[in-house]
Amino acid sequence: MQPEDDTRRLVIVTDAWHPQVNGVVRTLTKVRELMEARGYEVTIMSPADYPSVPCPTYPEIRLAMTLPGALKARLEAIQPAYIHIATEGPLGFMARRACMKNNWRFTTSFHTRFPEYLRQRLPVPLSLSYGLLRRFHNSAQCCLVPTQSIHDELSQRGFKTLKVWTRGVDRALFKPERGADLGLQRPVFLCVGRVAPEKNLEAFLDLDLPGTKLVVGDGPELESLRRKYPSVVFAGKKEGAELAHHYAASDVFVFPSRTDTFGLVLLEAIAAGLPVAAYPVPGPKDVIAATGAGILAEDLSVAALEALAMGRVDPEKSLNKFSWEACAEIFESILAFIGASRPRNLSDQAQKP
Known about the structure:
Blueprint: E1 9-13, H1 23-37, E2 41-45, E3 52-55, E4 58-64, H2 68-78, E5 82-85, H3 90-102, E6 107-109, H4 114-121, H5 126-138, E7 142-145, H6 148-156, E8 162-164, E9 188-192, H7 201-205, E10 212-216, H8 222-228, E11 233-236, H9 240-248, E12 252-255, H10 264-271, E13 276-278, H11 284-291, E14 294-296, H12 300-310, H13 315-318, H14 324-338, H15 344-351
Parallel strand pairs: 1-2, 1-5, 5-6, 6-7, 7-8, 9-10, 9-12, 10-11, 12-13, 13-14
Antiparallel strand pairs: 3-4
Helix pairs in contact: 1-14, 2-3, 4-5
């Protein structure tokens, strides 16, 4: 479907943006590309647009330093037909404040289990932090969530207007490679992701598995884990074709996280032909149920060895429910459902002689 000429302006407000490398940034980057291809004029409002400071314990994440009035003035200057608030950071809260104050309709998305991440660092009750997020998202006309499991969980916590928003994978980049090899002892058990406490990497690193354990990614725990696990191969950050080759040259993808809401890396691994081993938690539970491309178990060692016994999977059969086009279609359908929501006062201003 194509929007009318006067309803093509879309603003996406996000506290997560390049040069960060994570699933949120990859998702929003792809959504911008696909929505522009559908005729929308997309503006990303991110920390890249403002002075910023490093987030405590996460220096790679920048926190934008601006005032709510300045962000509101920028929205008024753009006159968007649609406003999507992607994250619950400083920019997200300022954008929500502007929308609430001016009665502008907007959508949000839930990408990250911040309450669980915060509790790993500070004794903050989940009920308190989830209460804050519930108020944030329930103000929106629609809150997009990555899986049905997350939808059901948030619904039980009192979140409203939830809609499942699928994800996709670049099948031209991530694909099987005949004879791909990294020169490592086989089988290669691969884990890709941020090397940080919330990823639960030590649950993977402590496993007694044959062959080689390979970790691809960067993060605050990289050097300490390198010292603690000298037999594990830590390849550091990889992107593009080099990352795709690491997937294709491995034998099993192990996903130890218990807190990810989806895990785009699961789709990347399956696209490369890898079976997945993971815990039976939201994200992996949804992806594996839809693809059949892996094993879920509370004993991650059992899951890894059974996944190895499965052999390589066929992405053509497994991934037909996951595409970026489907992701964009859902996003656009939500915009159509809530209607072209250019703020009334902005429309009035535009009509003044």
